[in-house]
Amino acid sequence: MCLGIPGRVLAPSADRPDHARVDVEGVVREINMALLEDDPPQPGDWILIHLGFALQTMTEAEVADAREAMLADGARA
Fold first, then answer.
1. What is the signed CA dihedral for 10, 29, 63, 72, rounded to 10 degrees?
2. Domain extent at residue 39
């Protein structure tokens, strides 16, 4: 099983066209967007991130489900 974490796109990277600045639970990270180049996310869009790569865009409902699952799993640990 792999862990994907939702993040919200803030802006394209200033010096790397295939990267974007993304807010991941309050921490801004540089994420590689190359896998989504056919339909690149725009600022404000949610994406699923794994190992620094954006895998897919997400809806608000998918983000809520992912966050709920992460919190529920953490409560069991």
1. -150
2. 5-23+34-76
Predicted TM-score (pTM) of this structure? 0.87
Beta-sheet strands, E only, within the chain:
5-12, 19-24, 27-32, 46-50, 53-58
Residue 29 to residues 34, 39, 61, 73, 77, Cα–Cα distance (Å): 15, 20, 23, 24, 26
Question: What's the CATH number where 59 sits?
Answer: 2.30.30.140
- pLDDT per residue as tens digits for the range 49-63: 999 999 999 999 999
Given a cut of 80, whether residue 12 has pLDDT beyond it is yes
Give the residue from 27, 30, 24 showing the smallest Cα distance to 58: 24
Q: How far apart are CA 33 and CA 72, in angstroms?
A: 29
